[in-house]
Amino acid sequence: MATVSHPVFARVYERLSVAMDRAGTAAFRRDLVAGLSGRVIEIGAGNGRMFSHYPPGVTQVLAVEPERRLRAAAERAASDAPVPVTVVDGLAEALPAGEGEFDAAVVALVLCTVPDQASALAEINRVLRPGGQVRFFEHVAAEEAPRLHRAQRLVDATLWPKLFAGCHTSRDTVAAIAAAGFRVEELRRFRFPATSNSPSSPCVLGRATGPLPTVGR
């Protein structure tokens, strides 16, 4: 089994995610999945805070979460979701799904934590149908603020990833998504909280489309 255990972080995150949603993250989650339809895979579902925001056009969500405490919380949240949600154990680098099964993939505050972004994005590409969507909401490098970017690199090299279940604040995730073959079609950069200089405050929210099959040779 892919199960991992971060019991201290999981307990903190269960409370923190509720507070973050009240402070504005819920609106980002709602925007992230707006207009989705068909079958969706959510990678790193956490405690299921995304589930209530899926629109009625979504016919099924496969929610992948490796952390056992958070997965149990997600299973409870799935029972109240407005669309069918199945919660499973699994890692971003080895998704428990076949090729081309999904119309869209959702990642929220996940690609900052995975050990290898390229491997995770290759797996997302594998399980999406040709031309499928990736919706992403992620912590990213503060490219427009060199001083904060230096602080991000410093905390990433010390305690931050250990305290926050592998989170790296200084990753250029948008470039990684493009390098994996996805076409970034919508992108919004912002700070959350808006006036914060925390290493985790620079964020992006966007939509990318997977490559279409080659026609003819």
Tally of contiguous helical segments: 6
The SSE order reads HEEHEEHEHHHEE
User: Which geometry do the CA atoms define?
Assistant: globular
Low-confidence stretches: none
Terminal CA distance reads 42 Å
Q: What is the name of the CATH architecture?
A: 3-Layer(aba) Sandwich
Instruction: Round the mean pLDDT to the nearest integer and report it.
Output: 93
The CATH fourth-level homologous superfamily: Vaccinia Virus protein VP39
Structure class: alpha/beta
Count of DSSP strands: 7
Please summarize the sheet with the most strands. Answer: 7 strands, mixed
Note down, in words, how this protein is organized.
The mean pLDDT is 93. The chain is an alpha/beta fold and 217 residues long. The protein contains six helices and seven strands. The protein has a seven-stranded mixed beta sheet, sandwiched between helices. It is globular, with a radius of gyration of 16 Å. It has helices at 7-33, 68-78, 117-127, 146-156, 160-163, 173-179, and strands at residues 38-43, 58-64, 85-88, 102-108, 128-139, 183-191, 202-209. Helix 3 links the parallel strand 4 and strand 5 (128-139). It has one domain (7-209): Rossmann fold. The longest helix is centred in the N-terminal third of the chain and has 27 residues, at 7-33.
What's this, in brief?
This protein has 6 helices and 7 strands. With 217 residues, the chain is α/β, with parallel strands linked by helices.
